Amino acid sequence: MSEEKKKIVSSKPQTRIRAAHEKTILSEAEIIFAQYGYAGAKLSQIAKAVNISKTNLLYYFPTKESLYLNVLKNIIDIWLEKLTLFNQVGSDPATKIKNYIIDKLELSQKHPNASKVFANEIINGATNIGDYLQERFSTTLEEDVKLINTWINEGKMDAIDPYHLFFMIWASTQTYADFSVQIQLALKKDKLEQCDFDNAAEFISKVVIKGLGISQ
Amino acid sequence: MSEEKKKIVSSKPQTRIRAAHEKTILSEAEIIFAQYGYAGAKLSQIAKAVNISKTNLLYYFPTKESLYLNVLKNIIDIWLEKLTLFNQVGSDPATKIKNYIIDKLELSQKHPNASKVFANEIINGATNIGDYLQERFSTTLEEDVKLINTWINEGKMDAIDPYHLFFMIWASTQTYADFSVQIQLALKKDKLEQCDFDNAAEFISKVVIKGLGISQ
DNA sequence: GTCTATAAGGGGATAGAC
DNA sequence: GTCTATCCCCTTATAGAC
Predict the structure, then answer these.
(1) To the nearest whole number, what is the mean pLDDT of chain B?
(2) What nucleotides of chain D have any atom within 7 angstroms of a protein Cβ?
(3) Same domain, yes or no: B62 and B88
(4) B31, B164, B187, B208: which to substitute to probe chain A, counting the most A Cβ within 10 Å?
(5) A195 in a domain, yes or no?
Protein backbone atom coordinates (compact mmCIF):
# COMPACT_ATOMS: atom_id res chain seq x y z
CA MET A 1 0.00 0.00 0.00
CA SER A 2 1.61 3.21 -1.14
CA GLU A 3 1.96 6.11 1.26
CA GLU A 4 0.04 8.84 -0.48
CA LYS A 5 0.03 12.48 0.53
CA LYS A 6 -3.02 13.12 2.66
CA LYS A 7 -5.48 15.38 0.93
CA ILE A 8 -8.24 17.18 2.75
CA VAL A 9 -10.70 16.00 0.08
CA SER A 10 -9.25 12.51 0.08
CA SER A 11 -12.31 10.59 1.29
CA LYS A 12 -14.29 10.85 -1.95
CA PRO A 13 -13.25 8.62 -4.85
CA GLN A 14 -11.95 10.63 -7.80
CA THR A 15 -13.99 10.38 -11.00
CA ARG A 16 -13.16 12.39 -14.08
CA ILE A 17 -16.13 14.74 -13.64
CA ARG A 18 -15.36 15.29 -9.97
CA ALA A 19 -11.72 16.06 -10.67
CA ALA A 20 -12.67 18.58 -13.33
CA HIS A 21 -15.27 20.28 -11.18
CA GLU A 22 -13.06 20.45 -8.12
CA LYS A 23 -10.31 22.08 -10.11
CA THR A 24 -12.46 24.87 -11.53
CA ILE A 25 -14.27 25.36 -8.23
CA LEU A 26 -10.99 25.81 -6.35
CA SER A 27 -9.77 28.20 -9.00
CA GLU A 28 -12.86 30.41 -8.90
CA ALA A 29 -13.15 30.17 -5.13
CA GLU A 30 -9.64 31.54 -4.78
CA ILE A 31 -10.67 34.67 -6.69
CA ILE A 32 -13.80 35.24 -4.59
CA PHE A 33 -12.12 34.51 -1.25
CA ALA A 34 -9.30 36.85 -2.26
CA GLN A 35 -11.68 39.71 -2.79
CA TYR A 36 -14.03 39.27 0.14
CA GLY A 37 -12.27 37.16 2.75
CA TYR A 38 -13.81 34.07 4.29
CA ALA A 39 -16.94 35.56 5.84
CA GLY A 40 -17.60 37.92 2.98
CA ALA A 41 -17.38 35.35 0.20
CA LYS A 42 -20.73 33.78 -0.74
CA LEU A 43 -21.11 30.26 -2.07
CA SER A 44 -23.67 31.61 -4.54
CA GLN A 45 -21.02 33.88 -6.07
CA ILE A 46 -18.59 31.01 -6.43
CA ALA A 47 -21.25 28.69 -7.87
CA LYS A 48 -22.23 31.36 -10.40
CA ALA A 49 -18.60 31.77 -11.48
CA VAL A 50 -18.33 28.01 -12.02
CA ASN A 51 -21.74 27.85 -13.72
CA ILE A 52 -23.23 25.24 -11.42
CA SER A 53 -25.95 25.49 -8.81
CA LYS A 54 -25.09 26.51 -5.31
CA THR A 55 -26.36 23.20 -3.98
CA ASN A 56 -24.32 21.30 -6.50
CA LEU A 57 -21.24 23.14 -5.31
CA LEU A 58 -22.00 21.85 -1.83
CA TYR A 59 -21.96 18.33 -3.19
CA TYR A 60 -18.30 18.67 -4.15
CA PHE A 61 -17.27 20.58 -1.06
CA PRO A 62 -19.70 19.68 1.73
CA THR A 63 -19.12 22.89 3.69
CA LYS A 64 -17.93 26.40 3.00
CA GLU A 65 -15.11 25.83 5.45
CA SER A 66 -13.85 22.70 3.68
CA LEU A 67 -13.73 24.61 0.40
CA TYR A 68 -11.84 27.45 2.04
CA LEU A 69 -9.35 25.15 3.71
CA ASN A 70 -8.59 23.48 0.39
CA VAL A 71 -8.03 26.84 -1.29
CA LEU A 72 -5.75 27.83 1.56
CA LYS A 73 -3.84 24.57 1.39
CA ASN A 74 -3.11 25.03 -2.31
CA ILE A 75 -1.72 28.46 -1.54
CA ILE A 76 0.57 27.37 1.25
CA ASP A 77 1.96 24.59 -0.89
CA ILE A 78 2.79 27.05 -3.66
CA TRP A 79 4.31 29.36 -1.06
CA LEU A 80 6.54 26.88 0.70
CA GLU A 81 8.06 25.62 -2.52
CA LYS A 82 9.70 29.00 -3.01
CA LEU A 83 9.78 30.60 0.40
CA THR A 84 13.24 29.48 1.38
CA LEU A 85 16.43 31.41 1.19
CA PHE A 86 18.47 28.37 2.11
CA ASN A 87 17.54 26.38 -1.01
CA GLN A 88 17.86 29.36 -3.32
CA VAL A 89 20.33 29.03 -6.22
CA GLY A 90 23.63 30.78 -5.74
CA SER A 91 26.34 30.55 -3.15
CA ASP A 92 27.12 34.13 -2.16
CA PRO A 93 24.67 36.20 -0.08
CA ALA A 94 23.98 38.76 -2.80
CA THR A 95 22.93 36.18 -5.37
CA LYS A 96 20.84 34.13 -2.96
CA ILE A 97 19.01 37.16 -1.58
CA LYS A 98 18.42 38.62 -5.02
CA ASN A 99 16.98 35.34 -6.32
CA TYR A 100 14.83 35.02 -3.21
CA ILE A 101 13.35 38.47 -3.83
CA ILE A 102 12.81 37.75 -7.52
CA ASP A 103 11.04 34.49 -6.73
CA LYS A 104 8.78 36.09 -4.13
CA LEU A 105 7.87 38.88 -6.54
CA GLU A 106 7.10 36.33 -9.22
CA LEU A 107 4.62 34.73 -6.86
CA SER A 108 2.96 38.11 -6.32
CA GLN A 109 2.75 38.59 -10.06
CA LYS A 110 1.55 35.12 -11.03
CA HIS A 111 -0.61 34.30 -8.00
CA PRO A 112 -2.01 37.61 -6.77
CA ASN A 113 -5.23 36.04 -5.58
CA ALA A 114 -3.41 33.38 -3.61
CA SER A 115 -1.46 36.14 -1.91
CA LYS A 116 -4.64 38.03 -1.10
CA VAL A 117 -6.39 35.02 0.40
CA PHE A 118 -3.36 34.46 2.57
CA ALA A 119 -3.30 38.14 3.55
CA ASN A 120 -6.96 38.07 4.51
CA GLU A 121 -6.39 34.97 6.59
CA ILE A 122 -3.46 36.49 8.49
CA ILE A 123 -5.19 39.84 9.03
CA ASN A 124 -8.23 38.19 10.53
CA GLY A 125 -6.02 36.30 12.97
CA ALA A 126 -5.01 33.13 11.10
CA THR A 127 -7.75 31.27 12.93
CA ASN A 128 -8.04 28.58 10.27
CA ILE A 129 -4.40 28.13 9.54
CA GLY A 130 -2.38 29.04 12.62
CA ASP A 131 -1.21 25.56 13.56
CA TYR A 132 -0.42 24.47 10.01
CA LEU A 133 1.47 27.71 9.49
CA GLN A 134 3.44 27.41 12.69
CA GLU A 135 4.48 23.89 11.81
CA ARG A 136 5.49 24.33 8.18
CA PHE A 137 6.65 27.93 8.19
CA SER A 138 8.67 28.01 11.36
CA THR A 139 11.11 25.28 10.39
CA THR A 140 12.13 26.84 7.08
CA LEU A 141 12.30 30.28 8.67
CA GLU A 142 14.60 29.08 11.44
CA GLU A 143 16.87 27.48 8.87
CA ASP A 144 17.03 30.73 6.89
CA VAL A 145 17.69 32.78 10.03
CA LYS A 146 20.62 30.51 10.81
CA LEU A 147 22.01 31.04 7.32
CA ILE A 148 21.87 34.82 7.78
CA ASN A 149 23.62 34.53 11.13
CA THR A 150 26.35 32.44 9.52
CA TRP A 151 26.92 35.16 6.95
CA ILE A 152 27.09 37.74 9.73
CA ASN A 153 29.63 35.69 11.65
CA GLU A 154 31.70 35.26 8.51
CA GLY A 155 31.77 39.05 8.09
CA LYS A 156 29.86 38.89 4.81
CA MET A 157 27.22 41.39 5.95
CA ASP A 158 26.32 43.80 8.74
CA ALA A 159 25.08 42.46 12.06
CA ILE A 160 21.32 42.93 11.84
CA ASP A 161 18.30 41.09 13.24
CA PRO A 162 17.54 38.41 10.62
CA TYR A 163 13.86 38.20 11.56
CA HIS A 164 13.16 41.82 10.68
CA LEU A 165 14.99 41.30 7.41
CA PHE A 166 12.55 38.58 6.41
CA PHE A 167 9.56 40.66 7.54
CA MET A 168 10.80 43.44 5.28
CA ILE A 169 11.34 41.22 2.27
CA TRP A 170 7.99 39.47 2.67
CA ALA A 171 6.12 42.73 3.10
CA SER A 172 7.91 44.56 0.28
CA THR A 173 7.26 41.79 -2.23
CA GLN A 174 3.74 40.80 -1.22
CA THR A 175 2.56 44.40 -1.36
CA TYR A 176 2.67 44.20 -5.17
CA ALA A 177 -0.08 41.59 -4.97
CA ASP A 178 -2.08 42.55 -1.87
CA PHE A 179 -1.99 46.33 -2.32
CA SER A 180 -1.86 46.32 -6.11
CA VAL A 181 -4.80 48.72 -6.24
CA GLN A 182 -2.96 51.32 -4.19
CA ILE A 183 0.17 50.86 -6.28
CA GLN A 184 -1.82 51.23 -9.47
CA LEU A 185 -3.33 54.46 -8.12
CA ALA A 186 0.13 55.78 -7.28
CA LEU A 187 1.61 54.81 -10.64
CA LYS A 188 -1.54 55.95 -12.45
CA LYS A 189 -1.93 52.65 -14.26
CA ASP A 190 -4.91 50.36 -14.82
CA LYS A 191 -2.78 47.28 -14.42
CA LEU A 192 0.72 46.43 -13.22
CA GLU A 193 2.95 45.41 -16.10
CA GLN A 194 6.03 43.23 -16.41
CA CYS A 195 8.31 46.26 -16.25
CA ASP A 196 6.76 47.32 -12.93
CA PHE A 197 7.68 44.00 -11.39
CA ASP A 198 11.14 44.19 -12.94
CA ASN A 199 11.63 47.66 -11.48
CA ALA A 200 10.41 46.44 -8.11
CA ALA A 201 12.84 43.50 -8.15
CA GLU A 202 15.67 45.80 -9.14
CA PHE A 203 14.86 48.35 -6.45
CA ILE A 204 14.19 45.98 -3.57
CA SER A 205 17.23 43.80 -4.13
CA LYS A 206 19.50 46.80 -4.62
CA VAL A 207 18.37 48.54 -1.44
CA VAL A 208 18.35 45.39 0.68
CA ILE A 209 21.74 44.11 -0.44
CA LYS A 210 23.46 47.49 -0.20
CA GLY A 211 21.60 48.27 3.02
CA LEU A 212 22.87 45.07 4.61
CA GLY A 213 26.44 46.00 3.76
CA ILE A 214 26.89 43.07 1.40
CA SER A 215 29.70 43.54 -1.11
CA GLN A 216 28.84 42.39 -4.61
CA MET B 1 -21.95 81.44 9.57
CA SER B 2 -18.80 79.50 10.25
CA GLU B 3 -17.44 77.10 7.66
CA GLU B 4 -17.45 73.79 9.45
CA LYS B 5 -15.71 70.66 8.23
CA LYS B 6 -18.25 68.50 6.45
CA LYS B 7 -18.95 65.32 8.36
CA ILE B 8 -20.60 62.30 6.82
CA VAL B 9 -22.92 62.08 9.84
CA SER B 10 -23.46 65.81 9.88
CA SER B 11 -27.19 65.88 9.19
CA LYS B 12 -28.31 64.72 12.65
CA PRO B 13 -28.14 67.24 15.48
CA GLN B 14 -25.60 66.28 18.14
CA THR B 15 -26.99 65.56 21.57
CA ARG B 16 -24.83 64.35 24.40
CA ILE B 17 -26.16 60.81 24.27
CA ARG B 18 -25.74 60.62 20.50
CA ALA B 19 -22.18 61.89 20.65
CA ALA B 20 -21.27 59.31 23.30
CA HIS B 21 -22.91 56.45 21.44
CA GLU B 22 -21.41 57.34 18.10
CA LYS B 23 -17.97 57.44 19.61
CA THR B 24 -18.12 53.98 21.16
CA ILE B 25 -19.87 52.54 18.12
CA LEU B 26 -17.15 53.81 15.79
CA SER B 27 -14.51 52.46 18.11
CA GLU B 28 -15.97 48.97 18.34
CA ALA B 29 -16.89 48.92 14.67
CA GLU B 30 -13.25 49.56 13.79
CA ILE B 31 -12.24 46.41 15.66
CA ILE B 32 -14.88 44.25 13.98
CA PHE B 33 -14.31 45.64 10.48
CA ALA B 34 -10.56 45.15 10.99
CA GLN B 35 -11.01 41.49 11.68
CA TYR B 36 -13.65 40.55 9.13
CA GLY B 37 -13.65 43.19 6.43
CA TYR B 38 -16.77 44.97 5.25
CA ALA B 39 -18.85 42.03 4.07
CA GLY B 40 -17.76 39.75 6.88
CA ALA B 41 -18.53 42.12 9.74
CA LYS B 42 -22.02 41.72 11.21
CA LEU B 43 -24.00 44.60 12.69
CA SER B 44 -25.11 42.20 15.41
CA GLN B 45 -21.47 41.68 16.46
CA ILE B 46 -20.85 45.40 16.64
CA ALA B 47 -24.09 46.05 18.55
CA LYS B 48 -23.17 43.34 21.01
CA ALA B 49 -19.75 44.89 21.60
CA VAL B 50 -21.38 48.26 22.29
CA ASN B 51 -24.10 46.69 24.42
CA ILE B 52 -27.02 48.04 22.48
CA SER B 53 -29.54 46.34 20.23
CA LYS B 54 -28.82 45.86 16.57
CA THR B 55 -31.80 48.02 15.66
CA ASN B 56 -30.68 50.76 17.99
CA LEU B 57 -27.30 50.73 16.28
CA LEU B 58 -29.12 51.35 13.02
CA TYR B 59 -30.70 54.41 14.55
CA TYR B 60 -27.32 56.06 14.98
CA PHE B 61 -25.90 54.85 11.66
CA PRO B 62 -28.83 54.29 9.29
CA THR B 63 -26.96 51.79 7.11
CA LYS B 64 -24.02 49.44 7.46
CA GLU B 65 -22.30 51.30 4.66
CA SER B 66 -22.61 54.67 6.42
CA LEU B 67 -21.04 53.20 9.54
CA TYR B 68 -18.19 51.69 7.53
CA LEU B 69 -17.52 54.91 5.64
CA ASN B 70 -17.28 56.82 8.90
CA VAL B 71 -14.82 54.30 10.31
CA LEU B 72 -12.79 54.53 7.13
CA LYS B 73 -12.84 58.32 7.17
CA ASN B 74 -11.47 58.43 10.70
CA ILE B 75 -8.63 56.20 9.60
CA ILE B 76 -7.64 58.19 6.54
CA ASP B 77 -7.62 61.37 8.59
CA ILE B 78 -5.21 59.79 11.09
CA TRP B 79 -3.12 58.52 8.21
CA LEU B 80 -2.77 61.70 6.25
CA GLU B 81 -1.67 63.69 9.25
CA LYS B 82 1.53 61.66 9.35
CA LEU B 83 1.93 60.20 5.91
CA THR B 84 4.12 62.88 4.46
CA LEU B 85 7.85 62.90 4.08
CA PHE B 86 7.87 66.50 3.02
CA ASN B 87 6.51 67.86 6.31
CA GLN B 88 8.66 65.58 8.42
CA VAL B 89 10.98 67.24 10.93
CA GLY B 90 14.62 67.42 9.95
CA SER B 91 16.41 68.91 6.98
CA ASP B 92 18.77 66.23 5.74
CA PRO B 93 17.46 63.11 3.93
CA ALA B 94 18.59 60.66 6.62
CA THR B 95 16.75 62.45 9.42
CA LYS B 96 13.58 63.02 7.44
CA ILE B 97 13.40 59.43 6.21
CA LYS B 98 14.15 58.00 9.64
CA ASN B 99 11.43 60.12 11.27
CA TYR B 100 8.99 59.16 8.52
CA ILE B 101 9.62 55.48 9.19
CA ILE B 102 9.33 55.96 12.97
CA ASP B 103 6.03 57.81 12.57
CA LYS B 104 4.58 55.18 10.27
CA LEU B 105 5.60 52.42 12.67
CA GLU B 106 4.02 54.31 15.53
CA LEU B 107 0.76 54.29 13.62
CA SER B 108 1.03 50.53 13.21
CA GLN B 109 1.64 50.17 16.92
CA LYS B 110 -1.04 52.55 18.19
CA HIS B 111 -3.72 52.01 15.57
CA PRO B 112 -3.37 48.41 14.42
CA ASN B 113 -7.08 48.04 13.73
CA ALA B 114 -7.19 51.19 11.65
CA SER B 115 -4.37 49.76 9.59
CA LYS B 116 -6.20 46.47 9.15
CA VAL B 117 -9.46 48.09 8.06
CA PHE B 118 -7.49 50.04 5.50
CA ALA B 119 -5.68 46.89 4.37
CA ASN B 120 -8.95 45.01 3.93
CA GLU B 121 -10.38 47.88 1.94
CA ILE B 122 -7.39 48.01 -0.42
CA ILE B 123 -7.19 44.25 -0.84
CA ASN B 124 -10.82 44.00 -1.84
CA GLY B 125 -10.30 46.66 -4.48
CA ALA B 126 -10.81 49.97 -2.66
CA THR B 127 -14.36 50.10 -3.99
CA ASN B 128 -15.61 52.37 -1.21
CA ILE B 129 -12.65 54.65 -0.98
CA GLY B 130 -10.94 54.76 -4.36
CA ASP B 131 -11.86 58.34 -5.32
CA TYR B 132 -11.26 59.82 -1.88
CA LEU B 133 -7.91 58.03 -1.75
CA GLN B 134 -6.86 59.18 -5.20
CA GLU B 135 -7.67 62.75 -4.32
CA ARG B 136 -6.06 63.06 -0.91
CA PHE B 137 -3.22 60.57 -1.23
CA SER B 138 -1.94 61.39 -4.68
CA THR B 139 -1.15 65.03 -3.95
CA THR B 140 1.00 64.36 -0.90
CA LEU B 141 2.68 61.44 -2.65
CA GLU B 142 3.60 63.54 -5.67
CA GLU B 143 5.06 66.17 -3.38
CA ASP B 144 7.17 63.56 -1.61
CA VAL B 145 8.32 62.02 -4.88
CA LYS B 146 9.51 65.44 -5.99
CA LEU B 147 11.48 65.85 -2.78
CA ILE B 148 13.24 62.53 -3.35
CA ASN B 149 14.08 63.54 -6.92
CA THR B 150 15.53 66.80 -5.63
CA TRP B 151 17.80 64.87 -3.29
CA ILE B 152 18.87 62.64 -6.18
CA ASN B 153 19.67 65.64 -8.37
CA GLU B 154 21.65 67.17 -5.54
CA GLY B 155 23.71 64.00 -5.29
CA LYS B 156 22.51 63.29 -1.79
CA MET B 157 21.41 59.74 -2.62
CA ASP B 158 21.49 57.11 -5.35
CA ALA B 159 19.26 57.48 -8.39
CA ILE B 160 16.37 55.14 -7.65
CA ASP B 161 12.66 55.10 -8.49
CA PRO B 162 11.00 57.11 -5.69
CA TYR B 163 7.65 55.34 -6.05
CA HIS B 164 9.07 51.93 -5.25
CA LEU B 165 10.83 53.46 -2.25
CA PHE B 166 7.50 54.55 -0.80
CA PHE B 167 5.90 51.19 -1.57
CA MET B 168 8.72 49.53 0.38
CA ILE B 169 8.45 51.84 3.38
CA TRP B 170 4.66 51.61 3.53
CA ALA B 171 4.71 47.81 3.26
CA SER B 172 7.58 47.29 5.70
CA THR B 173 5.96 49.44 8.39
CA GLN B 174 2.32 48.41 7.94
CA THR B 175 3.21 44.75 8.09
CA TYR B 176 3.76 45.13 11.85
CA ALA B 177 0.05 45.93 12.17
CA ASP B 178 -1.58 43.96 9.37
CA PHE B 179 0.52 40.81 9.63
CA SER B 180 1.19 41.02 13.36
CA VAL B 181 -0.05 37.45 13.82
CA GLN B 182 2.55 36.10 11.41
CA ILE B 183 5.26 38.19 13.05
CA GLN B 184 4.24 36.98 16.49
CA LEU B 185 4.42 33.39 15.24
CA ALA B 186 7.91 33.99 13.85
CA LEU B 187 9.15 35.73 16.99
CA LYS B 188 7.36 33.19 19.20
CA LYS B 189 5.57 35.91 21.17
CA ASP B 190 1.96 36.34 22.26
CA LYS B 191 2.11 40.06 21.68
CA LEU B 192 4.45 42.53 20.03
CA GLU B 193 6.23 44.70 22.59
CA GLN B 194 7.75 48.16 22.51
CA CYS B 195 11.21 46.72 21.90
CA ASP B 196 9.97 44.88 18.80
CA PHE B 197 8.78 48.13 17.28
CA ASP B 198 12.04 49.81 18.29
CA ASN B 199 14.03 47.03 16.63
CA ALA B 200 11.89 47.30 13.53
CA ALA B 201 12.41 51.08 13.33
CA GLU B 202 16.14 50.61 13.81
CA PHE B 203 16.38 47.90 11.17
CA ILE B 204 14.17 49.46 8.51
CA SER B 205 15.70 52.92 8.70
CA LYS B 206 19.23 51.55 8.74
CA VAL B 207 18.71 49.35 5.67
CA VAL B 208 16.75 51.94 3.73
CA ILE B 209 19.13 54.83 4.40
CA LYS B 210 22.28 52.83 3.77
CA GLY B 211 20.63 51.07 0.83
CA LEU B 212 19.83 54.39 -0.81
CA GLY B 213 23.46 55.46 -0.51
CA ILE B 214 22.66 58.30 1.88
CA SER B 215 25.63 59.45 3.92
CA GLN B 216 24.79 60.12 7.53
C1' DG C 1 -22.34 9.27 -8.74
C1' DT C 2 -24.58 13.53 -9.71
C1' DC C 3 -27.72 17.12 -8.89
C1' DT C 4 -31.95 19.85 -6.85
C1' DA C 5 -36.23 21.10 -3.94
C1' DT C 6 -36.70 22.54 0.46
C1' DA C 7 -35.54 23.68 5.09
C1' DA C 8 -33.68 26.42 9.03
C1' DG C 9 -31.45 30.37 10.48
C1' DG C 10 -29.34 34.90 10.40
C1' DG C 11 -28.60 39.17 7.64
C1' DG C 12 -29.77 44.32 7.16
C1' DA C 13 -33.42 47.51 7.24
C1' DT C 14 -38.22 49.74 8.46
C1' DA C 15 -42.40 51.25 10.70
C1' DG C 16 -43.93 52.52 14.65
C1' DA C 17 -43.84 52.65 20.08
C1' DC C 18 -42.20 55.32 23.94
C1' DG D 1 -34.89 62.19 20.54
C1' DT D 2 -34.39 57.40 21.58
C1' DC D 3 -35.29 52.65 21.07
C1' DT D 4 -37.67 48.02 19.55
C1' DA D 5 -41.04 44.51 17.32
C1' DT D 6 -41.29 42.92 13.00
C1' DC D 7 -40.32 42.21 8.08
C1' DC D 8 -38.18 40.26 3.99
C1' DC D 9 -34.35 38.46 1.81
C1' DC D 10 -30.39 35.76 1.23
C1' DT D 11 -27.28 32.62 3.60
C1' DT D 12 -25.55 27.72 4.32
C1' DA D 13 -26.90 23.10 4.64
C1' DT D 14 -29.74 18.71 4.19
C1' DA D 15 -32.80 15.16 2.54
C1' DG D 16 -34.09 13.09 -1.17
C1' DA D 17 -34.79 12.76 -6.57
C1' DC D 18 -32.63 11.19 -10.81
Answers:
(1) 91
(2) 1-6, 10-15
(3) no
(4) B164
(5) yes
* Residue A76 shares a structural domain with residue A65: no
- B64 and B129 co-located in one domain: no
Q: Tens of pLDDT along A132-165?
A: 778 878 889 999 999 999 999 999 999 999 999 9
B39 contact to strand D (CB, 7 A limit): no
Sorting pLDDT into bands at 50, 70 and 90, what band is B103?
very high
The span from the CA of B155 to the CA of B132, in Å, is 35
**B123 three-class SS:** helix
What is the CB-side half-sphere exposure of residue B206 using CA atoms within 13 A? Answer: 14
* Domain that includes residue B43, residue range: 16-70
Asked if the model's pLDDT at residue B123 lies above 90, the reply is: yes
Which domain CATH number covers B42?
A: 1.10.10.60
For chain A, the domain total comes to 2
- Cα B23 to Cα B29: distance, rounded to the nearest angstrom: 10
Residues (189-208, chain A) with CB within 7 Å of strand C atoms = none
Q: How far, CA to CA in Å, does A167 sit from each of A110, A129, A148, A216?
A: 21, 19, 14, 23
